[in-house]
Amino acid sequence: MFDILQSIIPTVLFYSAPLILTALGGVFSERSGVVNIGLEGLMVMGAFVGIVFNLTFADVFGVWTPWVSLIAATVIGALFSLIHAVASITFYANQVVSGVAINMLALGIGVYLTKVWYDKGQTDMVNQPFYTTDIPVLSNIPLIGTLFFEGVYVTSYLAIILAFVAWYVLYQTPFGLRLRAVGEHPMAADTNGIKVERMRYIAVLLSGALGGLGGSVFALTIASNFSHSTIVGQGFMSLAAVIFGKWHPLGAMGAALFFGLAQSLSVVSAGVPVLENIPQIILLIAPYLLTILALAGFIGRADAPRANGVPYIKGSR
Amino acid sequence: MTANNRLFGILVPVISVIVGLLAGAIIMLASGHNPIEGYAALWRGAFGDSYTLGETIRRTTPLILTGLAVAFAFKTGLFNIGAEGQVIVGWLASIWVGVAVEAPMIIHLPLAVLAGAVAGGLWGFIPGLLKAKLGVHEVIITIMMNYIALHVTNEIIRSILTDQATTTEPIAATASLASTWLQSITFYSRVHYGVLIALAAAFVMWFIIERTTYGYELKAVGFNRHASNYAGMNVSRNIILSMVLGGAFAGLAGTMEGLGTYGTISVMSGFTNLGFDGIAVALLGSNNAFGVVLAAILFGALKEGAGEMPTAAGVPTELVDIIIALIIFFVASSYIIRWALLRFKKGGNIDV
Amino acid sequence: MDYAIEMLNIRKEFPGIVANDNITVQLQKGEIHALLGENGAGKSTLMNVLFGLYQPEKGEIRVNGKPVNITNPNIANGLGIGMVHQHFMLVEPFTVTQNIVLGSEPTNKFGKIDLAKASKEIKELSDRYGLQVDPDAKISDISVGMQQRVEILKTLYRGAEVLIFDEPTAVLTPQEINELIDIMRSLIKEGKSIILITHKLKEIMEVCDRCTVIRKGKGIGTVNVADTNTTELASLMVGREVSFKTEKKTAEPKDIVLAIKDLFVRDSRKLDMVKGLNLDVRAGEIVGIAGVDGNGQSELIEAITGLSKTRSGSVTLSNKEITRLSPRKITESGLGHIPQDRHKYGLVLDYSVGENIVLQTYYQKPYSNASVLKYNEIFDKAEKIIEEYDVRTPSVYTKARALSGGNQQKAIIGREVDRSPKLLIAAQPTRGLDVGAIEFIHRKLIEERDKGSAILLVSFELDEIMNVSDRIAVMFDGKIVADVKPEDTNEQELGLLMAGSQVDKAGVISE
Amino acid sequence: DEDGAEDNTATEGNEEGTSGEDATSTDYSVAMVTDVGGVDDKSFNQSAWEGIQAWGEEHGLSQGEGFDYAQSTDKADYMPNLTRFVRDEYNLVYGIGFELKEDIQKAAEQYPDTNFAIVDDTVEADNAVSITFKEHQGSFLVGVAAAMKTTTNKVGFVGGVDSPLIKKFESGFIAGVKSVNPDIEVDVQYAESFADAAKGKLIATNMYDSGVDVIYHASGATGNGVFNQAKDIKQNDPEREIWVIGVDRDQHDEGTIGDHNVTLTSMVKRVDVAVQDVANRGMNGEFPGGEKLEYGLEQDGIDFAKTNEEAMTGEIITAVDEYKEKILSGEIEVPSTIEDLEAFEESL
Ligand SMILES: Nc1ncnc2c1ncn2[C@@H]1O[C@H](COP(=O)(O)OP(=O)(O)OP(=O)(O)O)[C@@H](O)[C@H]1O
Ligand SMILES: Nc1ncnc2c1ncn2[C@@H]1O[C@H](COP(=O)(O)OP(=O)(O)OP(=O)(O)O)[C@@H](O)[C@H]1O
Ligand SMILES: [Mg+2]
Ligand SMILES: [Mg+2]
């Protein structure tokens, strides 16, 4: 049992980290009332920037390259999400549609520029990706240390810590209260003197930053290069995590970890007696099936922020 | 007000397309390509001769259907992001019937087409049911259903339709939509009779939505669930119906690929993207049947023409994806276009 | 004269409409000043201008004599102006405290909201004005009256000196209205000034010092309430004579149309809200259900109309059991229903007026044939109804959303009455409407009665109940606790009955 | 009209191409259509294009005049791309990858005057040649290398999508491993995708954790995850002996990690060799229409990489070469399906 856990937990952690980060972005955006189906595109942008930056500046930044790449991807991700913000907040665009366009645009730009810059459809592998490490001090704790803090990516814990930070910001600070108010009843927020549009811009930019971060973490811990097939569905899984987690940062984190667990089980199953005889196809679709069952059965109706997806037009009712 | 709205309804997409193409030209310039060459290649690739024209029609055909699939659900206030999965199962089912059944064409072909529609409908039924009965968010369920469709279809191709092969046998000629006549007049393009099915489907959608009591109910439920219930409509049934019919349209799109274009189905390592493109088509077409047809033609032509761009002008095909995305942004942000138009004709009083 | 607020020659335009045309309102310190006008006259718009939600095209605003430029609600708050909106501005999943501090939250040194501190302050404030608000309750769990008091607290918390109330009583029960009036008086005592928008002339006479009348966007003038009466106010507002007492012949009740026996109904929280209710309504009579909101009226209506399931008991319509039928079957059995919430239930706002007219009948002949809609028939019908019921709309093709509240209501009534239902349920049919519209609707209900319909009127307005009903059933705690004739009772007695007091055979009320 | 004119010339051109016995080297033109991997996939598309470029340069041609390629971004692009070359009067058109099988088949039937070739699958037409490779042979050889290298007696195989083609790799690999030492365990897992690096990494993590020290991947971009994991382990513990075996071409570059390289060797498929060979035969009027050419060790169509000199010790290379001789001499018949593999294992 311990062995199984020991092989599952690190994989869950690295698999889930990009999903957690991106889902947190989704939580911010949707809590403020802006539907963000463009998480996939934000991840694509993040992966693209993370890889290109890493390839270009590896000589300059040395071992710090992956970290600097993450920052670059975070910033560019935020800037890129500005398009979604302008369309859906200032121009009252249908937010779902704008999100779909974000997805197409990110992939288009990423691959287009890859071809223009590198003259081929995919980049080389980076020389400065993230590597796993043992977390100092914590990895010395008996049992738990071995299970959770040995041979893990720091970025996984960055994701988990950010989930708690996001929870604190959303549920304990004035900023969070205002952000949620804007997503529930923008007009009420407005009459209380809160700048609805500004809050929403900030939230969408945060989702861009976190989506970019998630995409670059994926690229620099898992994929190692960028091509049209680097990000294929992780953004949608993150969106699922947002909803599955009931628009709550810790819920979203839990959902993302759950997806990681389901994926990991489908691989590890070969060595686990109970799982061994289950047909491969069942294990393959398990993450998706379980999500559906969970939504239909255990957690039932998830209440979205009430003003989610509704542009706020001053003076209309 | 109505006249003004109608004018906007036409102007907004047209302006969006123009601005999108302009943006594409700027991108080409910025990345060191000649936009005139690029667009000339695009045009040739889409409408250059009878062959490309045939291929453009072929490519447009499933886009019409996935566009309808998304638009139909939109009308009932539902977002069918699952057209992708419905396409896949529709494709699979039509091929299955095409391969496994032996019958004269008059039975076989309709049966195979129907199988595709039914499979897609079934794939829409599940999220519809969950939405109607348990209030589960259809977006997330349809996303999950897409993946399930992909994996299950691959498994069926490998283990049931073939003996661990990656592609099925071609369907019997009696189930094929291919047309030697259409091919012969288009220099062997793959245009097939499916385009007639797609156009008929557009007409059916228009008729259901605009002219029948079913459409009246579907739209009412989309606009206001409570009032529909108050008025005695069965809200659950309408939600399910909408997803099922939307799914059936998407299933037909898969059928077009199966019975029309390829005649087989292969193990897929990723999505067809027909379903996702359908979202764009539905939007540009303002969710109405006629608009969807026009939008599908535009996107079909852009995507078909893109193939000519790398060889003829050195422009990566992804430029077209960027252009399409930008067009969608502009349409979605039509407020800015309306605002600009109103500014433009300022002075004239604005009647609301 | 010392004015707290002066709004001078205000003009506010919306595309195609001048909502406020050169209106002047001057609020004296320490007064309650009424704003009176028909639906759509421009009252809310004017107040939204004062509160900084809209910018006026012309005119000047002075606070304590100083000209100011109020470009957003923050500035209004800073100037000591608070507004209690017609549609509450509360975030439902939040607590009372969270709603009140929203936008001006006290924090501790970690940037965390200091809810404990805020909660204490709010409690104190609430006690001082006798508002009785629980700071830790969730908005979604408290009554409408309580929500309104939260709105008041919100303004007080921000140090408002001038409070604007936009139709505060439209959503309140008689008891709550009395409480609100007390609250307003205590606010005045504390030195605040109040602008009150209301359609209820009686309230103006009761609490207001002066009244400014607006008609079709134009200021008609300001009168001292002491020097006027309701009739004069009404004619100032509408521009013609209005009668308050609805003329009607005595009822001639015939067969029983609606019979309810031992009805039990649960609400969404699975609590019994209707508890063994019995009621008969006969053809040709109007039975008014009086009661404080939350005593099971909504559940009763939902059960009769089939919108929610009954737990036990039976409902028959013209001797036909309809207890477990679908809403459609019940409608087909001869029920008409003017719903309480016209936006949620009564209309599909994005459908045209014409399409809304056939909301329950679209599938029947002549509006459709073999499932194919016949739009000519539909719009012909709609033309007739908007004509007959005086629905003011540019055309039958206009979206219902674009109509004012009163006209939306008239369209619904036209639709329901036109089907000549055996039973017509009218729930709060005049809520939020001006006197002209109310008069019209009452006349229509009586006309229907005279044609032989059974009418069940549910209203929180005792005036309306007293005026229109032939028989009054008082509902308390899920049961009918009294059945009286309007001429045998008075508002005071009804009020007590509604509060749960018993009436013995001799008509003496005991606690 | 214009279309008609173009059609006519196209037909004429083709007639010239096929019937022209006096065709000089400059007359003959060759083009290829990639699968969705693209021309720079660092795999068979790239290799094929390199072959065509080499062939073109050899005969004094330049891209666009004598040889060219067309990129496919979508399955739906194959047919238009093929047709474009037919109408541009190319004499020989390659379809690269088994995904183009149906389209090449159809094109060959529709345009009998053009020659076609499919790489990695077979078609049935007199004007089309099928080019396949004996990947099982190469897989066998890298299996030998893996068996020689493993110290834990556990090796792994990561497949992309479960299909007969990838089964060929698997069978050959296992046969090679077992030939050296039947006691070595082979852990086999399929990612069900050629593009899921995360899945590849999950599988690799799991395998390396369970004691596997050499993984052979035949899984396209999914393999990125395998390399990624191996390099991560190496980074943390440079002493640990952990290896990946690449596929299709020499994946040495993917294995670089600091001063180390985790790529033991690669199973190299010389698509370039095959493509040049067929082009030359076509140019000389000896187009092997209708034939099914299978390139193996005999034709230099299959090879293994020796780039990692440190890891591929002389001992290993000698052993691999010995087995190569045995295969060439027919002494060993490498199994290409799971059934054959079972028989093979029994005979050991
Ligand atoms: N946001 C808006 N956009 C356009 N027109 C508006 C808007 N708000 C109000 N109007 C117009 O201004 C006029 C005045 O509306 P307002 O809401 O101020 O009326 P009111 O006096 O408050 O009515 P009621 O008594 O029904 O509340 C209306 O006739 C309406 O047509
Ligand atoms: N965004 C808008 N555009 C145009 N007209 C508007 C808008 N918002 C409100 N209105 C108009 O404002 C007017 C005021 O409506 P009114 O105040 O009568 O409704 P109401 O009585 O407040 O509604 P309720 O029944 O909720 O009390 C209506 O004519 C409505 O059409
Ligand atoms: Mg108002
Ligand atoms: Mg009103």
UniProtKB/TrEMBL annotation, chain A:
InterPro entries: ABC_transp_permease. It is found in: Cell membrane. The chain crosses the membrane at residues 12-29, 41-64, 70-93, 100-118, 152-171, 201-220, 256-275, 281-299. It comes from Gracilibacillus salinarum. Its main location: membrane. This is ABC transporter permease. It is a multi-pass membrane protein. The keyword Transmembrane applies. It comes from the Bacteria. The keyword Cytoplasm does not apply. Keywords: Cell membrane, Membrane, Transmembrane, Transmembrane helix.
TrEMBL record, chain B:
Coiled coil: none annotated. The keyword Protein biosynthesis does not apply. The chain crosses the membrane at residues 7-30, 63-81, 88-107, 113-130, 191-209, 239-262, 274-302, 322-341. Pfam families: BPD_transp_2 (PF02653). It comes from the Bacteria. It is found in: Cell membrane. Keywords: Cell membrane, Membrane, Transmembrane, Transmembrane helix. Its main location: membrane. The keyword Repressor does not apply. It is a multi-pass membrane protein. This is ABC transporter permease. It comes from Gracilibacillus salinarum.
UniProtKB/TrEMBL annotation, chain C:
Keywords: ATP-binding, Nucleotide-binding. InterPro entries: AAA+_ATPase (IPR003593), ABC_carbohydrate_import_ATPase (IPR050107), ABC_transporter-like_ATP-bd (IPR003439), ABC_transporter-like_CS (IPR017871), P-loop_NTPase (IPR027417). GO terms for molecular function: ATP binding. It comes from the Bacteria. Residues 5-241, 258-502 form the ABC transporter domain. The keyword ATP-binding applies. PROSITE patterns: ABC_TRANSPORTER_1, ABC_TRANSPORTER_2. It holds the Pfam family ABC_tran. This is ABC transporter ATP-binding protein. It comes from Gracilibacillus salinarum.
